[in-house]
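Hi V.,

Quick status before I head out on leave. The structure for the redesign project is tokenized and pasted below; the design run finished overnight.
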């Protein structure tokens, strides 16, 4: 029996790389466009605007939107010096929560381990280190989700 593809919601600050990761997963050209509203991509990926995390008043909307997902994916840019995710952020969702570190192609090993640490503190139970530019780490993530 084929395993069901998990429906994911991508959460992370603006420019974290959520939309680019969706494009990579769908083998599309990587084209930058700012996400303005919640977008359902290919039926099973919910791409959110960074503002939903950044602005306190939008966080409720994020919780409601996450109800539609099987897995919460916290997206952390390795090159960012800090994180928007509060400690134990996963507890807001009552869903399996994993982390994706993005932009590993332009990050130092120290930046990558710092990003992993942020995601771990936020409650990610598994962490995938990826680059949407090179594709590094993306297959492992897709296997975990049952997409491959
Ligand atoms: N080098 C590199 N750049 C990346 C990678 N992923 C994303 N980017 C770049 O980061 C910028 C922002 O990426 P987006 O995917 O649009 O970010 P987002 O999280 O969707 O941002 P919002 O829609 O504003 O919430 C773009 O210029 C991307 O090309 C990556 O893996 N490596
Ligand atoms: Mg986007």
């Amino acid at each position: 029996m084929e395993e069901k593809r998990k429906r994911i919601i991508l959460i992370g600050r603006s420019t974290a790389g959520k939309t680019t990761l969706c494009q990579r997963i769908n083998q599309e050209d990587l084209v930058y466009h700012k996400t303005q509203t919640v977008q359902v991509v290919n039926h099973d990926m919910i791409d959110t605007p960074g503002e939903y995390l950044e602005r306190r008043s939008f966080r409720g909307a994020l919780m409601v939107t996450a109800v539609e997902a099987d897995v919460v994916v916290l997206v952390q840019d390795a090159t960012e010096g800090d994180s928007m995710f509060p400690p134990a952020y996963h507890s807001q969702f009552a869903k399996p929560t994993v982390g994706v570190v993005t932009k590993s192609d332009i990050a130092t090993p120290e930046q990558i381990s710092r990003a992993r640490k942020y995601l771990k503190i936020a409650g990610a139970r598994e962490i995938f280190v990826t680059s949407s530019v090179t594709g590094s780490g993306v297959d492992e993530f897709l296997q975990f989700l049952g997409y491959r």
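Above is the designed sequence. The longest strand covers residues 71-77.

G. will cover questions while I'm gone.

Best,
W.
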